[in-house]
Specification:
Elements lengths: L1 H5 L5 H30 L4 H46 L16 H4 L15 H5 L1
Helix pairs in contact: 2-3
């Protein structure tokens, strides 16, 4: 049984699945709390209503954390794939596809103009003044 618990997060994909299930449970809890808050707002128990609003606030924060966790796991999976492709490229260069790391990089300073040389509409001279 301990082996089963240890293997739950053996991969990023399994962690993503777990976070997805947890996010669904949090969304369900949020819906229930919203119904409870609406029901309690018509009754005369302000402390209970306040407690429900605090619980709803915390569940909303948890929902945001779940969303952030999903994005972070997705980024990690993407980075792992990029790194894996780079390792494959270095192991077999004749069969590898060109990657961003293998293409020559042009410094941005040679591509983009210096900010002081850019003419904005506010500092352009009128055509008649330019001709004079």
């Amino acid at each position: 049984m301990s082996h089963e618990i240890e293997s739950t997060f053996d991969s990023i994909e399994s962690a993503q699945e777990f976070v997805g299930l947890l996010a669904e449970a949090v969304a369900g809890a949020k819906q229930e709390l919203e119904v409870d808050v609406k029901r309690e707002s018509s009754l005369k128990f302000p402390r209970r209503l306040q407690a429900l609003r605090v619980a709803l606030y915390n569940v909303e924060k948890l929902e945001l954390h779940m969303s952030k966790s999903r994005r972070i796991l997705n980024d990690l999976r993407t980075l792992r794939r990029l790194l894996f492709e780079e390792r494959v490229a270095t192991a077999a260069p004749e069969q590898a596809k060109p990657t961003l790391a293998s293409t020559p990089q042009t410094p941005l300073s040679t591509v983009l103009p210096h900010p002081s040389s850019v003419v904005s509409p506010s500092n352009r001279k009128p055509q008649s003044a330019a001709a004079a």
